[in-house]
Design brief:
It is built from one helix and 19 strands. It has 375 residues and is mostly beta strands. The chain has a single domain (12-374), classed as Porin. The chain has an 18-stranded antiparallel beta barrel.
């Protein structure tokens, strides 16, 4: 049957100036390690995943507004304990007040489960279930193309677990953050950036002494799409300080950034990297110092057929203990745009964690056949 064009979800008018874009993803697969467990405890199962999405958008003059829902319903026929219903509802607003001043805001509500093996807490009879409210406001001064740009950002995230309270009650927290950025355009498509970020963590019980602040001082550059590349990179100093005198903090080098390279109009190589320090999710050291590098190659072999190969390497040092982890993930996917409203495909992912604590080692293979459907 001949192909009729690239997959392109269509926005449906539902009211004056309001459009709705509904899509549905369906995936059927198999994994040989549901809970990311060591080989002797690994459990095999089929995997059925549904990902419904709804996006409503509207605009008034230069401002744009959107409300969206995204779900992820996962079922393991051979491991019902790992079934999960994940939901997120988000509203965004992009208000352009004049040619120089704009305010972007976002508010989201999340109702999700932590997949087995993704935290260091003891496993319960069901997955750890949490709810969170996340809000952020970004004010930007500087017209597009102006020599300078100033941004101020405020945000907060309130997260609370609702089950397995014996092990999850210490993980409830409220984080608040403030960020300031200043950019100077030094070339037509290149801007030099200076940034300061301050994040405060307040745990509801704080019996592990995780209350503290995190400050980042960054300098870098971003460049808009040229004939071959676009991206940004920032490097600087991170200070993660705990209020508890018994918990050691981190002070040192941090970085974040990514580059997109297009050697051909139909071929893209993406590279990203970062280094950070985060709170542990169990009794595993004072903090986790992590760094990663990820790369992917996406190639459009025809207007209706593309492939993607990706590789991610992550290293984590659980400071205060002897534990060190290395995680490598290799992925491959192929997409076939069967119709404008149907995309079909297949994917394979292999991941491996090697740890100095043998109980955290794992290998996993995941195969999937999937479809994406739109109107």
């Amino acid at each position: 049957m001949p192909n009729s064009g690239a997959y392109a979800p269509k926005a449906l008018p539902i009211a004056d100036g309001v459009a709705l874009t509904p899509t549905l993803g369906v995936s059927l697969g198999h994994t040989d390690n549901v809970g990311l467990a060591p080989k002797a405890q690994a459990q095999r199962s089929g995997v059925i995943t549904l990902t419904p999405k709804l996006l409503a958008t509207t605009a008034y003059r230069a401002s744009r507004y959107a409300v969206g829902y995204q779900g992820e319903l996962i079922r393991y026929p051979s491991s019902s304990r790992d079934n999960a219903n994940n939901h997120e509802l988000a509203a965004t607003a992009e208000n352009v007040l004049d040619t120089r001043f704009a305010v972007n805001s976002r508010l989201s509500y999340q109702d999700k489960r932590d997949a087995a093996g993704t935290t260091d807490r003891a496993a319960g009879q069901e997955l750890d279930h949490w709810r969170g409210l996340n809000g952020a406001v970004l004010a930007r001064y500087g017209a597009p193309g102006a020599k300078g740009r100033l941004e101020l950002e405020l945000g907060a995230f309130d997260k609370k677990y609702v089950n397995n309270r014996t092990t999850t009650q210490d993980a409830d927290y409220l984080s608040t953050n403030l960020a300031a950025r200043f950019g100077v355009r030094v070339m037509p498509k290149t801007t030099v950036l200076v940034e300061y970020r301050n994040t405060r963590f307040d745990y509801k019980r704080n019996v592990q002494g995780l209350d503290g602040t995190e400050q980042r001082y960054l300098v870098g550059a971003e460049w808009e799409a040229t004939a071959l590349t676009s991206g940004s990179f920032k490097v600087g100093y991170l200070n993660k300080d705990y209020k508890s005198p018994t918990r050691t903090g981190f002070s040192g080098l941090t970085w974040e950034g990514g580059v997109s390279w297009k050697p051909l109009t139909y071929s893209t190589v993406d590279i990203s990297t970062g280094r950070s320090a985060t709170d542990p999710t169990g009794n595993n050291g004072d903090y986790i110092k992590s760094s990663f590098i990820a790369t992917s190659w996406t190639h459009q072999w025809a207007s209706y057929f593309s492939t993607r190969v990706s590789l991610v390497h992550n290293e984590s040092d659980y400071v205060g203990t002897a534990r060190q982890d290395k995680v490598d993930t290799l992925g491959f996917s192929a997409n076939y745009d069967f119709r404008r409203w149907v995309r079909l495909g297949a994917s394979y992912e292999y991941s491996k964690r090697s740890s100095t604590a043998a109980s955290f080692d794992y290998d996993r293979n995941l195969f999937s056949l999937f479809g994406e459907f739109a109107f």
